[in-house]
Design goal:
binds pyridoxal-5'-phosphate; TIM Barrel; alpha/beta; single chain; 11 helices
Length: about 425
Amino acid sequence: MNFPEPRPRAERAAVIDLAAIRHNVRHLSHVVSPARVMAVVKADGYGHGAVETARAAVEAGAAWLGVAHISEALALRKAGITEPVLAWLHTRDAEFGEAIRANVDLGVSGWDLDAVVAAARDLEIPARVHLKIDTGLGRNGCPEDLWEAFVGRALAYQEEGLLRVVGIFSHFAVADEPHRPETDEQLRKFRDAVAVAEDAGVDREVRHIANTPGALSRPDAHFDLVRIGLGMYGLSPFAGQSSAELGLRPAMSLRSTIAACKEVPAGQGVSYGLHYRTKEPTTLALIPLGYADGIPRVATGGPVQVDGQTYPVVGRVAMDQMVIDLHRTGIAGTPDSFEGREVVLFGGEGQPSVDDWAAAAGSINYEIISRISGRVQRVYVDTAAAGDAPAEAPPIALEAAPGAPAPAPAAEAGQEQAVRAQ
Ligand SMILES: *Cc1c(COP(=O)(O)O)cnc(C)c1O
């Protein structure tokens, strides 16, 4: 499905289709049922807007929300979101008291257990914690040999009324490469850790280890909850499999318009370093997006679609702009007829994809979407309002964020949109 055309057009827009997010959450919920989905909306919802995507995910059945930082969790609470939220990456300067007061669940794996308890003691409110075991990723889980003692400390605090152990969790290292044996090993260690905790008397609500690739490739890793980030934004975590093959719909389309267009002779150098020179007389078009907008500087060759045709970026990507070579002369009318035409860097079916940009940048789709910067306006559309949604899905209420311009009038009957100023 292609993205609707928002009106009025933003100069630079990341168009987010909330119906695609709901579709993806429903689809993944079905895949992992009876386990539930935690919608991961860290990093501003992977660039899609944390609050907007969290609301869409909850509407589609996500039971939990997940973020890295406490500050990200507090932003969800401030927006009025009341579902359980887990935050799992803390420093010694983290606002544990604020988190406890806002009923935010906290992942803990070492020193942070005592810090959380100190804040709970001050507030006289028990903290909700999820104990994290390192099953092989080598980041912040509790090492296996310290696990039993760690669980014992948490239970002692629980006896004192200072916390409640809500969950036990871990995180996969190579689930995006399903043939690798390390995932089996991680699962074995996770089951052992859960057994140790339960034998010690932990009466947890949820066990969770799977991310998107784990949820899709390992039914034996679903447990009670899966933490879904990339999949809910409609992208594939697997190198050899597309979104469509996984039943997912990309939720973001990145667009702008041609800022300037001109005919040039053979031998014209293009952009800093003059690493590209035209081989023959041609027409160049200037795209007003650059690395400060989140287009990787190394992504020369990345695809830009104009009028259904795709052209690679030539020369260097600069801070604010980049150039495509239209490879033609004497184009319909004059070059200025191209100025103002829409360009699509990535979008839906028949358009270049986030994966194409990841390939051009030698990176992964996660990085491309999460780095689209605040200079690019987020524009929300909802294709379900045009009759695309299953009957059980009420159209989402779209509102501009506080301080944002008023929502633009709907382009066509049945298509709603909202704009968030960045
Ligand atoms: C980011 C993150 C996820 C989500 O991973 P995806 O592959 O995007 O689904 C899950 N769990 C943790 C701990 C994370 O940091």
